[in-house]
Specification:
- With 143 residues, the protein is of the alpha+beta class.
- The strands form two sheets. The chain has a three-stranded mixed sheet with strand order 4-3-5, with no helix packed on it. A two-stranded antiparallel sheet has the order 1-2.
- The chain has two domains: 83 residues, Arc Repressor Mutant, subunit A (Orthogonal Bundle); 60 residues, Ferric-uptake regulator, C-terminal dimerisarion domain (Dna Ligase, domain 1).
- The N and C termini lie far apart (46 Å).
- 43% of the residues lie in helices and 17% in strands.
């Protein structure tokens, strides 16, 4: 199901800000912060207020149309959700992000954490950081 269909199915209209943000995020492989989304849209001649960007991001993330990706400094970025349960690996140099699948692999760890802590785990965030193949190759060339 496309993001257009999901918004409509959930009873939301496809407003200008939502459309612009989803189109921008659907075309990038790098997570974007709200400030960068605001800047990109302004440069494209499609300006939105920063408040509108935040409101649209909150709703789109709540509807699971966006993934939240954390940069190594803790800053939050957003990417279009591509479906299915997945996680991200983020390049520390260029901030390019790649998805990788995996929920079943965490079942054993989740059970162990629940047993050790008494918590009932109902959600998790798993993200890796490293160097993408291009940045790793560049690093090797410079060494």
């Amino acid at each position: 199901m496309t993001w257009h269909e999901e918004l409509t199915k959930q009873g939301y209209r496809i407003s200008g800000p939502r459309r612009r943000i989803m189109e921008l995020l659907s075309d990038t492989r790098t997570p974007l912060t709200p400030a960068l989304i605001h800047k990109h849209l302004a440069l494209e001649g499609k300006p939105l207020s920063l408040a509108s960007v935040y409101r649209a991001l909150d709703l789109l993330a709540e509807l699971n149309l966006l993934c939240q990706v954390y940069f190594s400094d803790g800053t939050l970025g957003y990417m279009a959700h591509t479906g299915g349960h997945h996680h991200h690996v983020l390049c520390r140099r260029c901030n390019r992000s790649m998805e990788f699948g995996g929920h079943e692999d965490l079942d054993e760890l989740t059970e162990r954490v629940q047993a050790e802590t008494g918590y009932v785990i109902n959600e998790h965030l798993l993200q890796f950081y490293g160097l993408c193949p291009s940045c790793a190759a560049l690093r090797q060339e410079l060494a």
